Amino acid sequence: MPALVRMNGIVKKFGDFTATNNVDFEVEGGEVHALLGENGAGKTTLMNILYGLCIPDRGRIEVDGREVELNGPADAIEAGVGMVHQHPLLVDRLSVVENLFLGGVGNGTERGMREAIAEVEARFPLDVEPGALVEDLPMSKRQRIEIVRCLARGVRVLVLDEPTAVLTVDEVGDLFGEMRLLVESGHSVIFISHKLSEVSRISDRVSVLRGGRMVGTWRTGETNPGALAEAMVGEPVDPARRAGGPRAGRARLALRGCSVVDEDGQDVLQGVDLDVHEGEIVGIAGVEGNGQRPLAALTPGVQPPTRGEILLDGDRLPPVGEWRRRDVKLGRIPEDRRKEGLTLDAALWENLLTGPQCPDTGRVFSKKKMVERARVLLEEFGVSPPDPLLEAGQLSGGNQQKVIFARELWSDPGVVVAVNPTRGLDLRAQREIHERFLALRGQGVAVLVISTDLDEVTALSDRIGVLYAGRLDGPHPADEIDRKEIGLLMAGLSRQTEFDTEGGGLL
Regarding the domain delimited by 3-233, which CATH topology (the fold level of the hierarchy) does it fall under? Predict the structure, then answer.
């Protein structure tokens, strides 16, 4: 099949840094083409060039056999290329229709926009709820708004930048179904992801960038995750895995009958009992929306339980506002590093000061000394670049996560609670984070990892619990529960449930 998109000899430099170095990239009509590479490999720059957000220093771009000059997103859309970013570019306080109006859909009237939406949904059942406020919609529907915006404007090539990083397991399945409908209708999808299992599942071909250069392109069925990982990193990549059983230490973190009732009076967490011992990693799996966020807010004391109590080293853990962080040896790795973990427009040394080691209020301290201490810490945790004066928002996701680890572990906590700690990170960054957890375990720290990534939970955990509808099953010793049983529990079924594999029903 002829190429729908052809990029030849693409060069883009930022100062002395070469982001893309003579890159050739082609996308056929009617395919899902995965684009892989570590953070900083050039994926985003290449796709920003294709979408007109970035002008190449050198190179040629063709769409549907015609050379195009893309000086902005409007040019790209006119040429038939659309892009959906990992964090959709929508105005939360406006309705779906109002956002689509801002995106140039329809003829400028509400009726015209609704007709444009209906025309897209007649071909692709995306269900974007035109009258709903964007702020009330889950991330999956926000992505669909962006997809509808692109399709309504006639794009044939859709770039999806890390679309699954913020989706639940079920939502990922829905997205993949929608992608298949698109390619069956002749559209092409460029799928940017760090998750090799997803790439193997959905893509027809896969290309790998490393250090700004194109390493190669393969039919997905003719390669494997191990080979792709090696192509991305430049060397074999073995996942970090725990060794040996946990230490039989004392419980450092304990939840006793903890329940949380939301503002609508619903029990979003129900009677949870949980112990995390020193020298062990307890993983909590589950489909997002089954109580992970309330549990994540309870364990570091961000939110008090409606009923029950939380104990840290045998003493009741008060709400965050009632204690100074350095007085409680508890580290917190939040789910959203950009919103909860860091102040993006503040310098790294200032972000490090918000942690447990923050000086007493009112005490005079030396900025020079704090900057120097921050530099040492950034180097110790492998932050690149280790510049304390750099703003946090200028770092890659992996390096932002390392800054949070540096801050939270500076005071040698006895308990660490982490939520989706490697979401959106590349393979190398994931491994470094996992190795950090395993090192903490070896030092006798009690680690609680709450993650929707089942691979992460099974690779790290000594014991595994599953949240479903606010109830916790387990934790069970990791060597006594397999992935099939975990999957059943995530679906609200018993570990003993069996399936009729031929008929598809329950026995």
Answer: Rossmann fold (3.40.50)
